[in-house]
Design goal:
The protein is an alpha/beta fold. It is built from 17 helices and twelve strands. Helix 7 (about 115-125) packs across helix 8 (about 155-185) and helix 15 (about 375-385) packs across helix 16 (about 385-400). The N and C termini lie close together (about 10 Å).
C-alpha cells in the first residue's frame, strides 16, 4: 500500500512520525512523509521518501509575527495569534499535498494538517485516518490540551473542546475552499460537504501517539478514537552520542538535561544565565541544549552546551530532564525513566506538564513566564534528591516499554489494506 504521512510544525511535530513511517515501511508499505523541507534529513534517515512542503517553521517563529506569540500571556491568546499565522501559511502547502495524495492509497494525517488533508482525501476518493500527538476531541475528562491544564468542569470541558475544534476548522476553511475549487476542480459545495463529513458523526478513525499511562482514553470518546502508545522517533542502529558528550558524562556524576526544544524565548541570553544559576545553586552538573531558543552555557567541568542529540541515547544518562513539555519530549523523558522538571512555554505544554506531576515523575510545574533561578533550583533539588520521583519514573518507563504504538497503527493499516484488497 502507498501510504502518505502528512504533518507540519516544529521538530516535535515531525520526529515521532519518522518512527511510525519506518515501522510501516518495514511492514512492506511504500511510505512518503510530507513535511517541511528543513526536516528532510530526519525523514530520509528513516528509510522513507520525502515530499517537501514550503514554509520554514523556525524562520516563522523568529519572524516578527512569531515573536509576537510571546506578547500573549494566556493560552487562548497565544492560540489566536498562532491561528492567524497558520491561516496565512497553510494554503501554500496544498499543491504538494494534492500531488502526493493523487499517488497514494491511504493518507495518515497529523492534527496540524488534518482538515486540509481530509478534504483532499474526500475530493480524490482516497481514504484517510488521523495520527495525532495530542488529544483534541471534545471530552468531559479535560479541557482542550492546546489550552493548557485548566479544567472548566465536565460541561465546560466539552463546550471548550467543540469551540476549539470549530476554530481550527475555520483556520483551514479558505484553504479547503481554494483547494477543492482550483486544485481538485470540484464545485464549491464539495468543500462544505468534505468538511462536514469529516466531523465527529462520520466516525473518522484517529490513532493517538501517546501512552494511556499518561492519558487514559476518555470514556465519552466515540468509537474510532484510539490511544495506542508512543511513536518513538527513528534513530539509526549505529547512532551514538558525540565524543565530547561521552567525555563530559564520564567526567562526573549524572548531570541534568535542560532544553526547550523548538520553543523560543524573548531573551535567550537571560534565560541561559538563569539556568546556569539554578544548576549551580542546586549543586548539579548540566547539559544545556541550544535548541531553537538559543540557550547557552559556558562549557566547563560542570556545564556542557549541545545541539541536537538523540534523546533516546542521552536522557537515560541524566539525573533529571528539564524540558518545555512538547508531546514528543515528554514521552522521551518518560521512556528514559528519569525524573522531570516541566517548564511549559505554550499551547499543549501546560497539559503535558500537569500530567507529569500527576504521574509522580515531576515535583512541580515551573512555567517559563514565572521561571526564576530559585524556583528552578528548588524543583531540581526535589527531583534529584527525593528518591520517590525516580521510583515513579522507572515504574512508568517499565509500563511504556511494554507498549508498541507503532505496531498498533501498522496492524490497523494492514486491516484497511485487507479490506481494500
Amino acid at each position: 500500500m502507498r501510504v502518505a504521512v502528512m504533518t507540519a510544525g516544529s521538530r516535535g511535530d515531525i520526529a515521532p512520525y519518522t518512527g511510525l513511517a519506518h515501522g510501516l515501511a518495514r511492514a512492506g508499505h511504500r511510505v512518503t512523509v510530507a513535511t517541511h523541507a528543513s526536516f528532510g534529513p530526519l525523514v530520509t534517515a528513516a528509510g522513507v521518501e520525502l515530499c517537501p512542503l514550503p514554509v520554514d517553521p523556525r524562520a516563522e517563529l523568529e519572524s516578527a509575527r512569531g515573536r509576537a506569540l510571546h506578547e500573549s500571556t494566556t493560552g487562548p491568546g497565544k492560540l489566536l495569534r498562532l491561528t492567524r499565522m497558520a491561516r496565512e501559511l497553510v494554503g501554500g502547502m496544498a499543491p504538494p499535498l494534492v500531488d502526493l495524495a493523487r499517488r497514494s492509497d491511504l493518507l495518515l494525517l497529523s492534527s496540524s494538517l488534518a482538515p486540509l488533508g481530509n478534504a483532499i482525501g474526500e475530493g480524490l476518493g482516497v481514504p484517510s485516518a488521523g495520527v495525532f500527538l495530542q488529544p483534541l476531541h471534545s471530552t468531559a475528562a479535560f479541557s482542550p490540551s492546546v489550552l493548557g491544564a485548566r479544567s472548566f468542569g465536565p460541561v465546560g470541558n466539552r463546550l471548550a473542546g467543540r469551540m476549539t475544534n470549530e476554530a481550527v476548522d475555520r483556520v483551514f476553511s479558505q484553504a479547503v475552499r481554494t483547494t477543492v475549487r482550483d486544485l481538485l476542480s470540484l464545485p464549491p459545495a464539495a468543500a462544505r460537504a468534505a468538511r462536514h463529513r469529516a466531523r465527529e458523526r462520520r466516525g473518522w478513525p484517529v490513532w493517538h501517539g501517546f501512552s494511556p499511562v499518561l492519558v487514559p482514553r476518555p470514556r465519552d470518546w466515540r468509537p474510532g478514537l484510539e490511544v495506542c502508545g508512543y511513536w518513538w522517533p527513528y534513530d539509526p542502529p549505529d547512532a551514538r552520542l558525540p565524543r565530547h558528550v561521552e567525555e563530559f558524562l564520564a567526567a562526573g556524576p549524572p548531570p541534568v538535561f535542560v532544553g526547550l526544544g523548538s520553543a523560543t524565548v524573548p531573551d535567550a541570553e537571560a534565560t541561559g544565565a538563569l539556568v546556569v544559576r539554578a544548576l549551580r545553586k542546586a549543586g548539579l552538573r548540566g547539559v544545556v541544549q541550544r535548541g531553537w531558543a538559543g540557550l547557552h552555557a559556558d562549557d566547563g567541568p560542570d556545564l556542557l552546551t549541545v545541539d541536537e542529540v538523540p534523546h533516546a541515547l542521552l536522557f537515560p544518562r541524566m539525573a533529571a530532564v528539564v524540558h518545555h513539555c512538547g508531546a514528543g519530549t515528554t514521552g522521551a523523558g518518560l521512556r528514559a525513566g528519569v525524573p522531570a522538571v516541566p517548564v511549559p512555554v505554550q499551547f499543549d505544554a501546560g497539559f503535558w506538564a500537569a500530567r507529569l506531576v500527576a504521574s509522580g515523575v515531576a515535583p512541580a510545574v515551573v512555567p517559563l513566564r514565572r521561571l526564576t533561578a530559585d524556583r528552578l533550583a528548588a524543583a531540581l533539588t526535589a527531583a534529584v534528591r527525593d528518591p520517590s520521583y525516580g521510583r515513579c519514573a522507572r515504574r512508568v518507563a517499565a509500563r511504556l516499554d511494554a507498549e508498541d504504538g507503532t505496531a498498533a497503527v501498522v496492524r490497523a493499516v494492514e486491516r484497511l489494506s485487507a479490506r481494500r484488497g
